[in-house]
Amino acid sequence: MKTLSRELLEKLALEYGDSFYVLDSDVFEENCLSLSTEFKKYYDNFNIAYSYKTNYTPKLVKIVNRLGGFAEVVSDMEVEVALRSGVPYEKIIWNGPVKNKEKVKEVLLNGGTVNVDSFNEFECIKTLAEDNPGYVIRIGLRCNYDVGDGVLSRFGFDVEGNDFDSVLKQICEKDNIKLLSLQVHFAERDPKYWTQRTTKILDVYKKVRNEYGIVPERIDLGGGIYGDMPESLSRQLGTEPPCFKDYADKSAKLFADYFKDEENAPMLLIEPGTAVVANCMRYVCRIETIKQICNKTYASTNGSQKNINVCGINLPMQIIGGGRERKQYSDIDLVGYTCIESDCLYSGYSGEIGIGDYVIFSNCGSYSLVMKPPFIFTNVPVIDISGDMVEIIKRAETFDDLFTTYSF
Ligand SMILES: Cc1ncc(COP(=O)(O)O)c(C=O)c1O
Questions:
Q1: Which has the least CB within 10 A, 29, 175, 212, 356?
Q2: Looking at residue 242, what is its pLDDT?
Q3: What residues in the chain have per-residue pLDDT under 70?
Q4: Best probe residue, ligand 1, of 52, 72, 142, 185 (max atoms within 8 Å of C-beta)
Q5: What CATH number is associated with residue 366?
Q6: DSSP-based three-state secondary structure for 401
Q7: Dist. CA 148 → ligand 1 center (Å)
Q8: Which domain holds residue 13?
Q9: What pLDDT score does 23 carry?
Q10: Ligand 1 mutation pick, 48, 54, 144, 277, max ligand atoms within 8 A of CB
Q11: Comparing C-alpha atoms, which of 127, 129, 149, 151 is closest to residue 138?
Q12: Which of 244, 278, 312 corresponds to the end of one domain?
């Protein structure tokens, strides 16, 4: 990753304003490749379906498409991002509990896959299949079971429940509904939950095949994978620094054993978001004021916790000096421009800091700019700096970008 020197930051600030995201799209691509390599070492029939919600920047989704990966989307908005980025319908996998019915029809009639989340959703899809007998409707079923993480997931079908069996029975009776995929996702990212995630979906696969005679072509294990991070961050997250191999050991390896004698073994898919995008983005802002209230020192920045979307965790942070009135401080909080008391980007910093210093936060590519609300400030630009290449891939938002939807 390119070092962000004071000189470079000044240059970027002159052109783009003094707060921005810096992406390294090469790192994103390397992450996608190294994640795939680890899984393919065990199980070659493997692919990734990039989780758009995590960071739907077109530059990134185009990289996944170029590498041959799938688009994992959860809304009509994300379907549109995929299509406008050149992703063919067949490479779209649509998850999520609530979907726009018109767009679902468009995706299904053009060869995309919809992972069904509920019995009610299945009924709508069944009607669509009946109304369009000349089309094959490709669906997946989101499966829900306990993986020992202490979380009761609200998504998908309880694989022990009646709805699951009823849907499977109806799929068997419908000529033009194809159960292409069994899919799961669990949010807890610790690799220790991946063994149960895998063994239980293999049990479901066996049941679907033996009891219903359906042979799904894909098994999709979802996301929930940590990316590369420094020890300072993994310590705060309460995990050992995980690596992609840990996840492959607990999933792809088991697939390789399970399907070793199979000719038509299913494709193994995963839906990485954080794993591939978290560490390829940094966020830059500047110190605006430094003040003392009682015994506490606050440095206000022109950034916000809303830009990096972490709570109670200090992301890896670097101060680039060169500002004025620089002094040594201890236990200072770097706080945001909003009027929310808890808008803190970094708590308990000790070191030298001054007005006009730049602050760089690393590991903030996932659920950051996509979750920044239009609250108080519009969002800042995204600059891709990969090797010697500098490219603006999202300009700063303007007043008109946001207020065009209101009537004045
Ligand atoms: C269905 C699904 N797949 C993939 C992801 C990506 O998860 P992560 O960023 O933890 O990899 C999510 C995140 O919520 C999800 O809901």
A1: 175
A2: 85
A3: none
A4: 185
A5: 2.40.37.10
A6: helix
A7: 18
A8: 6-22+279-397
A9: 98
A10: 54
A11: 129
A12: 278
